[in-house]
Every structure is written in C-alpha cells, then in structure tokens.
Amino acid sequence: MTEYARVARALRESEERFRMLLAGVKDFAIFMLDAGGRVETWNQGAERLYGHSMEELVGQHVSTLYTPEDLRVGRVDEELAAASHHGRYESECERVRKDGSRFWAHVVTTALRDEEGRLRGFAKVTRDVTEKRKAEEEKERLLRELKAAVAARDEFLSMASHELKTPLTSVKLNLRALEHRAEKTVEQTEGAGSRRLVRIHGQIDRLAKLVNSLLDVSRITANRLDFHLEEVDLGEVLQDVLGQFKEELDRAGCALHLRTDVGVVGRWDRLRVDQIISNLLSNAIKYGPGKPVEVDLQRLGKSARLVVRDHGIGISERDQERIFDRFERAVSSQHYGGFGLGLWISRQIAEGLGGRITVHSQPGLGSTFVVELPLSGLPGGEE
Ligand SMILES: Nc1ncnc2c1ncn2[C@@H]1O[C@H](COP(=O)(O)OP(=O)(O)O)[C@@H](O)[C@H]1O
Ligand SMILES: [Mg+2]
C-alpha cells in the first residue's frame, strides 16, 4: 500500500468513526445547518427527539422545528445571528415535533467558520428538558403553597390571639371586682371563696400568658417586637418573678438556690426581661420537678449574666440548637404540655436587646441556660 493510500484510508476510517459516534448519540439531537439555516445533517437523536426522519428533514429550513409564536417574533434569525456574533448561543425554549406536540428544549447553537473565518453554517445540539422543567415548576408550586400555608398560619395565630385576649381581659376585670367583694366578707366565708378566686386568678393568668406568647409569635413574625427601654434593676425583676413562681416551685418540690450580685442595673425592657426569666424558670420546673433549681445573677463587665440551672431530664446534644426555634420541642406532648415557643421568644428578646441565650446540658443530668445582656440598652433597639 502506498503512503497516500494509507493516509486516505486512515482518514476514511476516522471520518467513519466520527459519523458513527454522531449517529449513535440518542439522547441529544445533533445536526448541522448551512449558513442560511437549512438542515444539512440529522442524527438518530434528532430523529428520536423531533420525529422527523433524516430524509424528511435534510434540506428543510430549521424553522420547521420552531413554535409559531417564536417564528412570529423572529426567533430563528435572532438565534443564528447571536451564535454568529458570539460564536455560541444557548437557550431554553419550546420546540415542535413532527406530530405537532411540543417539548422544552435546551439548545446550544455554535457557529462554524472555515479557516478564512467565513461562516459555513451552524451546529445545533438539543436536549429534551421537559422533565427537568416539570420538576422545577412542581417545586415552585410546592414552595408557593408552603408559603401560603405559613402565611395563613401566621394570620390565624395573630387573629386568634387577639380574639382570645379580649374575653380574657374582661374575665380578669370581673374577677378582680369579685375578689374585692370577697375580701370584705372574708370573715363569713372563712376565706374559702376567696381562696378559690385566687386559684381562678392563677389559671386566668396562665391562659393570658399562653395567649400572649401566641401574640408574640405574630409580632415577631411581623417584625413588630418593640422594646420600651428604661432603667431596670435586674435583681428586682428576678425577685419579682421568683415571688410569682414561689408556689409553683413548692408544689413541684424544687428547692431554690439563689445567688445575685446587687445593683445589676441596665437599660432594658422590664416586661420582656421578666418574660425571659419566667420562661426559663417555668421550664426548669416543668422539666426538672423534685430537683433543686439554681439561679445566679452576676454583673460581668458591661453585661449582666443570668444563669438558670436545673437537674432534670436534660437535652440531647442534637436538640440543643433546635429548641430555640419556633414550635420546636424535644419532648413528647403526651408527657409535657406546651407550645414550644418560650425559648424561641426568649431568644428573640435577648437578641433584640443585643444579648444572647445559650444552653449547656446533659441528658439525665439537667440543663443550664445562660442569658447575657449588655447593660447599655442596645444599638438596634427603639425606645
Ligand atoms: N430546662 C429544660 N430541661 C429540659 N428540656 C428543656 C428545658 N427547657 C426547654 N427544654 C426543651 O426545649 C423545648 C422548647 O422549650 P420551650 O420553647 O420553652 O417550649 P415548651 O416548654 O412549651 O415545650 C421543650 O419542649 C423541651 O424539649
Ligand atoms: Mg417552656
């Protein structure tokens, strides 16, 4: 065999392999257009995707594959011009099969130029992305639904808590009036009626607290948790709260160990700080009955540091961050009641005041919650 014959054969074989490769690709339509947009080659993938056979399509203009809408706005020329200008043009659009049905196509159009730089035609590689699009659309639909559901829940919470608050306030007012009267006749009834009223009072307060925490959810969600800053002695607030919790601590058999610095004074929102302490204490009692509760208030430089420690059920490592999120709980609702809002609200308040709240805990041994609040009001707070 002459040198020439060997080269020619090698060339033919190489060309043959290349043709087989193109023809064999079934997942992509790969075809070429001449410079005017007429189809020059057409592979098996193109046959499969568009439904036209090679005989039918070679020589036809590529516009056969476009939707009437795209043709009306001059998409064909636009794409070819863009590919010719930039060398390459990529798009995702609808295309039409031989039977008239449509699919979403991802199309890369590449301009082919000869050695002198003259435009010879275009190569097009097309893939069917209908499934991908469908999945994306489905995901978007689900996301929209989810957002709507969350919005509906928040709206419901906000409405329900407002509605519940009105009758509660009225019951409380009436109760106070009754209490006054009972105090006057306390001799005759030996205080029994009055004691009962006190108990009802306690229950109403509990209900009011629950309703308030629901109200807080809607406030926080709507970014409307505002702070009324004033000079606050944290030790005083602590004593107040402990006074309110005395009976509950006794009933649960929790001995209180208290240690406080004097004069831990800062600019805070009294009611909001009260709320943090109440939430932590009620958790310590709820999740550590029969065990002592230690409360420690310190001034550390320019911050106040409050520690509430219990010796109850504790919290596993993997739940320790989650419990500060809204509605998150690490216990079964059969054993412990609650909304899972206390810690979330407490963290929102602490962070709103420029501070933070953290937990250290070991399951079975107890939990320690630490609240740190800067003394000097806060940068982002309003008065
Ligand atoms: N002192 C604690 N000991 C053990 N677990 C706690 C304690 N405080 C909070 N938790 C866990 O964190 C979860 C969230 O607490 P919280 O937001 O106060 O909601 P709730 O008390 O209504 O469940 C609780 O459900 C519980 O699993
Ligand atoms: Mg709680």
Automatic annotation (TrEMBL):
Residues of the Histidine kinase domain: 159-377
Example GO molecular function: phosphorelay sensor kinase activity
Catalytic activity: ATP + protein L-histidine = ADP + protein N-phospho-L-histidine
Enzyme class: transferase
EC number per UniProt: 2.7.13.3
PAC domain location: 89-141
Keywords, comma-separated and alphabetical: Coiled coil, Kinase, Phosphoprotein, Transferase, Two-component regulatory system
Matching SUPFAM superfamilies: ATPase domain of HSP90 chaperone/DNA topoisomerase II/histidine kinase (SSF55874), Homodimeric domain of signal transducing histidine kinase (SSF47384), PYP-like sensor domain (PAS domain) (SSF55785)
Coiled coil: 125-188
Domain PAS: 14-70
Protein name stated in the entry: histidine kinase
